[in-house]
Amino acid sequence: MLIETLPAVFQMDEILYHLRDHIVGLNCGRWDYIFSYIKTLKNHADRVLPDRQSVTMDKPFLSAYSRLLIKTCHRRGAFAMGGMAAFIPSKDAEKNAWVLDKVQADKQLEADNGHDGTWVAHPGLADTVMAVFDQVLGQRHNQLEVLREQDTPITAAQLLEPCEGERTEAGMRANIRVAVQYIEAWISGNGCVPIYGLMEDAATAEISRTSIWQWIHHEKSLSDGQLVTKALFRQMLNEEMQVIRKEVGEARFNAGRFEEAARLMERITTQDELIDFLTLPGYELLA
């Protein structure tokens, strides 16, 4: 079972107990979990996240989530699975080496923490990830004996700890392009889309659009001093639509539903109340 909401991380013992006759383990559903962190703490100005790219599993609040899941599962004899590596291998050798290094470091952290296994978005990453777990596990089939009993108890404060990092113009613009392209694919019937070397699903698109909503709602500034407002977002949205048009090509842009996606993105990002899921208004536009 995926632990992919902030409230669920406080109920892992109860979940394992009630599903004890059926469950084999819990999984760190990291992308939905980050989205849930934003949504659950949306009214707390001190819990606003930085650029999406900065929110990695070595951040204290995510490290606490991973370690608590391992400790809870292994105490009850259940497997603790690591989170999704969303990278996609590249045909460019230099870029692919960078991707594999990123994935290797991410999975090394999971294996060292005590996870029993993990998952990836693309089979081309499997050998790299398997090598990491083979090296850590050796002849063992799992790490159920890693009970983390010597750890200082993980507190609610650690699970809710603010995440350090910058909010940048480049990060905001990237969020806009990713969210618009994902929404365009989703309303056209495709829910899992490769964008900029990552396999995007609804959770990662949700992070992109709710991050901007958060920045607007709490009147945060970017690293260059620009105040994030609805007007700034709308300006960037218009500019990034031209970037998308250039990237995908005129024919693909005109044949697609990018303008509809942009209108939905504008609507859900500038409303005063955070819409729970982009898919809810998205259903109205399904092809």
TrEMBL record:
User: Which enzyme type, at the first EC level?
Assistant: transferase
User: What are the UniProt keywords, alphabetically?
Assistant: Acyltransferase, Glyoxylate bypass, Transferase, Tricarboxylic acid cycle
Q: What is its EC number?
A: 2.3.3.9
Q: Name one Pfam family in it.
A: MS_C
Spell out the GO cellular component terms annotated for this protein, sorted alphabetically and separated by semicolons: cytoplasm
Using the record's annotation, list all stretches that form the Malate synthase C-terminal domain: 166-285
Highest taxon of the lineage: Bacteria
Q: Which GO terms describe its molecular function?
A: malate synthase activity
Record domain Malate synthase TIM barrel: where: 1-161
Q: Which reaction(s) does its UniProt entry say it catalyses?
A: glyoxylate + acetyl-CoA + H2O = (S)-malate + CoA + H(+)
> Acyltransferase: is it a keyword of this entry?
yes
Tell me which Gene3D superfamilies the record gives.
Malate synthase, domain 3, Malate synthase, domain III
SUPFAM superfamilies (UniProt xref): Malate synthase G
Give the UniProt record's GO annotations in the biological process aspect. Answer: glyoxylate cycle; tricarboxylic acid cycle
Instruction: Kindly tell me the pathway this chain contributes to.
Output: Carbohydrate metabolism; glyoxylate cycle; (S)-malate from isocitrate: step 2/2
What family does the Swiss-Prot or TrEMBL record give for this protein? Answer: Belongs to the malate synthase family.
What PANTHER family does its record include?
A: MALATE SYNTHASE (PTHR42902), MALATE SYNTHASE 1-RELATED (PTHR42902:SF1)
Q: What is this protein called?
A: Malate synthase
UniProt source species:
Serratia rubidaea (Serratia marinorubra)
